[in-house]
Amino acid sequence: MSTLFTILIAVAAGGLIGLPFFRKESGGGNILAVAPTGRSAAERRRNLREEKAGFVLALRELDFDYETGKLSANDYKALRQKYESKTIETMRELDLLDDEWKRFLETVDGQLKNRIPQTVRPKPATQKKPSGKMFCSKCGKSVVAQDRFCGWCGHPREAAANG
Predict the structure, then answer these.
(1) If 138 and its partner were Cys, which of 57, 117, 128, 155 is the partner (CB 3.0–4.6 Å)?
(2) Largest distance between two CA atoms of the chain
(3) CA gap 153, 83 in Å, rounded
(4) DSSP letter string over 14-70?
């Protein structure tokens, strides 16, 4: 009787442990099929950002290994091409999700503006950038004068403009 009970517990534990391996990923790989407001879209964005960070780290480690002589030129070239293409693919997917999110926000903003009467609408706020600070011409974020690239988007600092 105790042997049967032990076998039953082992089968149940094995089933619980193996359950995540048999689940299908939601979204089916089509990032545009996911609603931008849904939890799965935010989850997909987070996963893509983590993938991108992993690929960038892999590229840095690959460069280091090549510079220290751990990789041959042929291996380095093949691996670098592989990781660069995966990084670019991930960044393109992120751009698609971000563009979809921006379109969604513009739609909601337009609907809200149509619902709010003209007399109730606040005046648009004008944002003045403090004098003496540097800002990236691509993303508009503030950059440090010593940096050669924008810390937010990676755009070269030569393109940054004074505010």
Answers:
(1) 155
(2) 82
(3) 19
(4) HHHHHGGGGPPPTTTT-GGGS-TTSHHHHHHHHHHHHHHHHHHHHHHHHHHHHHTTS
User: Per the structure block, which two tokens stand in for 29?
Assistant: 């790989």
Q: State the burial class of residue 30 (Cβ atoms within 10 Å of its Cβ: 0-12, 13-18, 19+).
A: exposed
Helix (H, G, I), strand (E, B) or coil at 156: strand
Tokens of 134: 């540097």
Residue whose entry in the numeric block shows the structure tokens 């089509």:
30
Structure tokens at 34: 């996911």
Cα separation, 121 vs 34, whole angstroms: 32
pLDDT in tens, 54-63: 999 999 999 9
Question: Coil, helix or strand for 121?
Answer: coil
Indicate the SS3 state at residue 142.
strand
Query: How many whole angstroms separate alpha carbon 22 and alpha carbon 36?
Result: 26
Q: Please report, as a single letter, which amino acid is at residue 27.
A: G
DSSP state of 1: -
pLDDT in tens, 129-153: 555 677 888 887 888 777 788 877 8
The predicted model scores a pTM of 0.43
